[in-house]
Each structure stands twice: as structure tokens, then as C-alpha cells.
Specification:
Blueprint lengths: L5 E2 L3 H6 L4 E4 L3 E11 L7 E7 L5 E6 L1 H4 L13 H7 L4 H18 L9 E6 L5 H14 L6 E5 L2 H6 L8 E2 H4 L2 E2 L4 E2 L11 E5 L6 H15 L13 E6 L16 H13 L14 H10 L4 E5 L7 H13 L7 H13 L4 H9 L11 H19 L4 E4 L3 E3 L2 E2 L15 H6 L5 H4 L5 E4 L4 E3 L15 E3 L18 E2 L6
Parallel strand pairs: 6-12, 6-13, 7-8, 7-11, 11-12, 14-20
Antiparallel strand pairs: 1-3, 2-3, 3-4, 4-5, 9-10, 14-17, 15-16, 18-19
Length: about 500
């Protein structure tokens, strides 16, 4: 029998679910076998885990929240309370104020009922004020309440999405989650993604412009079967915007704070005062921009975090970076130079890549733009081939005749390319020539080369474990021969 105040983990549920790994301070990465909460509903609530160490032995450790951070994503048999979660995630008063509103709404919705008015919250604050911590606490609370399926977390950029992903709640890009084609500015069907979802978190929302927010609203309305003429932004979905408008701006388009009426009033006031400068330029807004701006103004609840939570040196450095580039104060020239030097030191240089290769390391770049990721990984692969003393095989992808020249796959043999089977051609029909124009799709192979599975069309592919493979052999086209004249073997007839 369990002691009073101790929550036993559901062993059957844990065995049926996926493995839970945890970075234990002073020990390293361990496999969690069991977890308990001791001292529930008190100020000293603490997680206690049993874990499998690297030597195969089962050990245990207490995880005081102030020392080890949040508990692992392990499902407990007895559901923790809102107060327990606040203590375990060491939420400050401001953070707890936001979390309680989210948790109350989740408990209400998890019973199958709808809130009288959907939650529309903006969670904002300067860097280091703990916005992401509130989100992670909410994700953990949803897991413990069997309500993970009610939550969708998305961000405009994949890099930001990876920062708030957890083992039980993988975040997605907004284009992927809401079936938005940013090139054609169209919205597809995301009803399968939003099935049973009741809470949508949009992290780093300052990247989102008015048009994009309008598209997200349209996607949610379509999935809910609400017509655009009904005028309900986001249908009855609970939506939370998380981020800081002062940190980033959209890469293009009108920002969410675009308000021509406010700017007209500001300019009129200056004219009445006889002032001849300081007039604000009006935004050029399309109908989609206007719809997105109206959707943004439907958020009637704002929680502004002001208390700094970061205590690590790198967190403090990030805060100083943001203050500088936001022009919060005018820094001296020497300080700007020091910051630039510090950022340059973090760049991945050819020398660093060469050193990694000499050390036998083969890191994979997975979260940068395709063009950058491809070049860095190709360089790493070539250096790894040199270290192994093997001669790599190089060719260009089938949809590219020469670097930077996109073209359709041929249905009949050509002097340049072999015929492509109809089933393959149909499967790649979504790939337009203009989509790959300017991107040289050079591929490389040698025995032992490491490949990472990644596909923008299947975003969750990059989130799975064991998402890598090692090249063993390469099937060559008939008549392909190595001339032995170059540092690489360039294939003349790379076939499908």
C-alpha cells in the first residue's frame, strides 16, 4: 500500500507507453522506470524517480525542483493537482497566474464541455521571464490529466518549435500544422491534425504576420465546419499566443500590431499641435491582413511577465543580446564589438568541421534551412570520408540536370537521365521545377556514411528516435564506371 502523500506511477501504463529518458544532473541520461510524488499539496512537493543507469543497475534519486528542474514526462497513476504542478515547475506568482487560468480551462474542457467563451490569451514578456516554462508546465499537466490529445503546439519557425517540443508533445511549424502553403498563400485541410484539439499554442508569435494569422484562423474554422462569413475567428478553439513582439518581427508582411486607425489618430494629434515631424507611416493592408489584424484584436486576456527567471550565464547573455538588438538602451561601441565577436565564435567554421572529423565525430545538422543544412552535412560527410580513407561517390539528384537548374522528371529516356517509372513520377508530382530551382541537390555516398531521415512534407519524421541509417552499398546503373581521375567518383547515370 502506498504511503499517504505518495503517488505511485501506473506501471501498466508506463510499460505500454514509450520509454521516458531524463537528463539527471551529475549522472547523465537515464531511463526512468518509475516516478512518485512525495509531499503532495505542500510547499515541499518533490518528484522521486527509479531509473536504469548506464551500467544496468536500478537506482533512485530525489528531484528537488529548485535543483533538478521540472520532472520527467512520466505518467502518474494519481493525478497531481494544480498546486503540485506549480511547485514542481517552480512557477513564480506571475507565471502561476497564467498557468492557473490554462489549467482550469483544461479541466473544464477535458470533461467534454465547452467554455462559455473560448480562451484567447496573450502570454508575453521580455526574454528570460519564463514564458516557455508556463507552456511546459501546461503540457506536463495535460499529460497527467490524460488530455495530451487536446493540445497542439506550433511555431512559425521549426527552430522555435524544437525549443518547446517535449517527448509527449512534439511541436510543429504553423505551415505544417494548419496545412498552409506559404508560396501560393493557400490553406488546405487540417481537420485530421486538429481532430479533438481544443487548445492551440502559437509560440514566438511575433514571427506571425497579419495574413498568416488570418490563414491559421481560416484553417481552424474549416476544420470546425464554420463558414468564413460567420465572422468567428478561430471558431470556438482556445488559442494562446506566446512570445514577445519586441524580439522579432515577421520576415514579411504587416506585423500584428499594424493599426492604421491608431496611426491616423497619432498623426492628426501632431497636426493639431502644429508639429511637422514624427508622423507615422500607414501600413498597406490587404483584405487578408485586415482579417488577421481583427483576429489578433479578439484576444482579450494578456498576461505580461516581468520577473526574470533565468539564472544561467547563457540565459543572462541571451537577455543582454535581446536588450541590445531591441535598442532598449544605447550600448557603447566596444560592448557591441564584444557581442559580435562572441556570436562569431559560435559559428560553425571549416576549421571546426575539420576538427570534428579528425576526432571521429559525425554530427548531423537538422534544424537549419535546407540550403545551409545540405552544405554543412555534405562538408561533414566529405571530411568523414577523408578520415576513413575512402573515395566518395557523388551525383546530383534526379530532378536536377545541373546545379541550379530545376526541371521535370522525364517520362522517357533522355541522353542525360534514365526513364522514371510512372509510379515514382506520380509520387513526385507535387515537386514543381521552380521549387528546386537554384538548389543544387548533390548527394554523396561511401560505406559508413551516416544519413538522417528528414522530410518537410512529413514533419514528424524528424522527431522519431533512431532516425538515422548507415550507408552500406550503392546500386549503380549498368555501364557505370569509375574513371579514377578525380578525388570523387562522379556518377554519369544516377538512376532511380
Amino acid at each position: 500500500m502506498a504511503e499517504r502523500g505518495v503517488q505511485q506511477a501506473d506501471g501498466a501504463a508506463a510499460a505500454a507507453g514509450s520509454k521516458v529518458w531524463y537528463e539527471l544532473r551529475g549522472v547523465g541520461r537515464v531511463l526512468v522506470k518509475n516516478m512518485q510524488l512525495q509531499g503532495t499539496d505542500t510547499a515541499s512537493v518533490c518528484a522521486h524517480i527509479h531509473y536504469l543507469a548506464s551500467d544496468g543497475a536500478v537506482s533512485s534519486a530525489a528531484l528537488p525542483a529548485g535543483e533538478h528542474g521540472p520532472p520527467p514526462d512520466f505518467k502518474l497513476q494519481r493525478k497531481p493537482s494544480i498546486v503540485d504542478t506549480i511547485k514542481l515547475f517552480t512557477l513564480a506568482k506571475e507565471q502561476a497566474f497564467a498557468f492557473v487560468q490554462l489549467a482550469d480551462a483544461l479541466l473544464f474542457e477535458s470533461e467534454g464541455t465547452r467554455l462559455p467563451e473560448p480562451l484567447r490569451m496573450v502570454l508575453t514578456g521580455e526574454p528570460g521571464t519564463g514564458k516557455s516554462q508556463v507552456l511546459k508546465a501546461f503540457e506536463w499537466f495535460a499529460l497527467q490529466r490524460d488530455a495530451s490529445h487536446l493540445l497542439l503546439v506550433a511555431s512559425f519557425t521549426w527552430r522555435a518549435a524544437l525549443m518547446v517540443s517535449t517527448s509527449k508533445h512534439p511541436a510543429r511549424s504553423t505551415c505544417s500544422a494548419f496545412a498552409i502553403n506559404p508560396i501560393r498563400n493557400t490553406v488546405g485541410d487540417c481537420s485530421e491534425t486538429l481532430h479533438n484539439v481544443r487548445f492551440v499554442f502559437l509560440d514566438e508569435y511575433s514571427f506571425i504576420n497579419c495574413r498568416h494569422l488570418s490563414q491559421i484562423s481560416d484553417a481552424i474554422r474549416k476544420a470546425a465546419g464554420v463558414r468564413s462569413t460567420d465572422g468567428h475567428c478561430f471558431a470556438d478553439m482556445n488559442v494562446v499566443l506566446c512570445g514577445d513582439l519586441c524580439q522579432h518581427r515577421p520576415v514579411a508582411g504587416a506585423p500584428l500590431f499594424a493599426d492604421n486607425e491608431e496611426r491616423k489618430a497619432h498623426n492628426a494629434l501632431l497636426r493639431n499641435m502644429g508639429v511637422k515631424q514624427g508622423f507615422q507611416k500607414l501600413f498597406t493592408l490587404s483584405s487578408a491582413d485586415t482579417t488577421g489584424a481583427a483576429a489578433y484584436r479578439s484576444f482579450d486576456r494578456v498576461v505580461f511577465l516581468t520577473q526574470q527567471q533565468r539564472i544561467l550565464a547563457e540565459g543572462d547573455l541571451l537577455y543582454k543580446y535581446s536588450r541590445m538588438f531591441m535598442a532598449a538602451e544605447r550600448p557603447p561601441r566596444q560592448l557591441v564589438a564584444e557581442f559580435c565577436d562572441a556570436l562569431n565564435d559560435k559559428a560553425v567554421t571549416q576549421e571546426r568541421l575539420r576538427r570534428w572529423a579528425e576526432e571521429g565525430k559525425a554530427p548531423r545538422v537538422v534544424c537549419l534551412r535546407n540550403e545551409v543544412r545540405r552544405q554543412l552535412n555534405a562538408t561533414l560527410a566529405c571530411l568523414d570520408a577523408q578520415r576513413r580513407g575512402v573515395r566518395p561517390v557523388v551525383w546530383f539528384a534526379q530532378d536536377v540536370v545541373s546545379p541550379g537548374r530545376g526541371r521535370k522528371l522525364p517520362s522517357a529516356p533522355t541522353p542525360e537521365l534514365l526513364a522514371v517509372p510512372r509510379v515514382v513520377r506520380d509520387a513526385l508530382a507535387f515537386m514543381k521545377p521552380e521549387d528546386t530551382q537554384g538548389v543544387g541537390s548533390m548527394q554523396i555516398f561511401f560505406p559508413g556514411c551516416v544519413y538522417t531521415f528528414n522530410d518537410n512534407a512529413v514533419p514528424r519524421l524528424g522527431m522519431v528516435n533512431n532516425g538515422e541509417c548507415v550507408g552500406v552499398d550503392l546500386l549503380l546503373a549498368p555501364g557505370e564506371a569509375d574513371d579514377g581521375e578525380h578525388g570523387c567518383w562522379f556518377l554519369r547515370q544516377p538512376h532511380v
